[in-house]
């Protein structure tokens, strides 16, 4: 089959690779000049299925509004609000029931666990090196943090996730760079989870896809789609005044993140997709002769602030915050200050902050949490969208499952609750 993939973030790249590996003739359209230039550019890099969870959870609305005035709030509202944001928040609030949360968490965990397995297989089979390391620590500053984490630990146990609740002393043995002056009551150790450079992985997998014949057309803007027995992609080069070119395919897969609604709405497919912005800072680690490299060995998460600190080769990345509304090109000073604070709390002096790179990304999120995989409702057009802040953790599994379905084979996992039909209720 001739298949077009729209978007070359981590979702688009993994989709293109899996389709090319199945022998399809794949063409990828991307408006940027390379892969993983937007949402996938500088995320936390965590692959931790047990912590892939819907943002729509019992008590979450109360937590959001409780912390709005906090200087280091993990969730923020900003102006201007995106079109449809208030309607999205209403649907999100309705999805925060205990029953909805439990069902959606199971769906996301099932996909995340399979995705972790698929990522490991690709890493092994293709011999990929993307600054990955094993192990993940969730830091609990106080007894209160531990009490609040009990529900999450119970859910981890129910999902069969391997974890160990350890004391502060053992946590500091696993991550010896942790600041001894910062209070630490306990930690959750997840030995089978990992961290890796998502953008670097995307570049490596793009190369593998190209070796299989995939054609990446960068700096190409997709202007429209038409479904049917012979789906059509209308596109032209960015900054070109030329008339749009129409290419015909056997199938089209939309992986365009926040670019998707404009392409899908004319087809009658109106997804409740909004950007939830996240932040990160990345800086080189200091090199001190005669001393071990400072910073984390792998990845830690401050559970109180919902901020991750990850090792990326010889760099450290601090990522967190969830910002509803606002503009992608306008950084929130308090959000960035929180990231600097957490780095100084746990690994003071480890980074060369004169060379820091600050980033803000628009994570495409659906109100109930899981992504949407499968048919769009228009013949010939398929969806792989809405992974929110878990795109890296869900990408490999989503791509493989969708490739199997497009190829007429049974999906490798149960895709119940991941189709577009759930969003039409």
Sequence-ordered SSE layout with sheet pairings:
Blueprint: E1 2-6, H1 10-21, E2 25-30, E3 46-47, H2 60-66, E4 75-78, H3 85-94, H4 98-126, E5 133-140, H5 143-159, E6 164-167, H6 168-174, E7 186-195, H7 198-211, E8 215-218, E9 220-226, E10 232-237, E11 245-248, E12 251-254, H8 260-264, E13 274-284, E14 299-302, E15 307-312, E16 315-325, H9 333-346, E17 357-365, E18 372-375, E19 381-385, H10 391-406
Parallel strand pairs: 1-2, 1-12, 2-8, 4-16, 5-14, 12-19
Antiparallel strand pairs: 3-7, 5-7, 6-7, 9-10, 10-11, 13-16, 13-17, 14-15, 15-16, 18-19
Write up what this structure looks like.
The protein has 425 residues and is of the alpha/beta class. The chain folds into two domains: 2-39 and 200-272 and 369-424, FAD/NAD(P)-binding domain; 59-96 and 133-195 and 274-365, 2-Layer Sandwich (D-Amino Acid Oxidase, Chain A, domain 2). Helices cover 31% and strands 27% of the residues. It has helices spanning 10-21, 60-66, 85-94, 98-126, 143-159, 168-174, 198-211, 260-264, 333-346, 391-406, and strands spanning 2-6, 25-30, 46-47, 75-78, 133-140, 164-167, 186-195, 215-218, 220-226, 232-237, 245-248, 251-254, 274-284, 299-302, 307-312, 315-325, 357-365, 372-375, 381-385. The strands form three sheets. Strands 3, 4, 5, 6, 7, 13, 14, 15, 16 and 17 form a ten-stranded mixed β-sheet that branches. Strands 8-2-1-12-19-18 form a six-stranded mixed β-sheet, with helices on one face. A hairpin with a 4-residue loop joins strand 14 (299-302) and strand 15 (307-312).
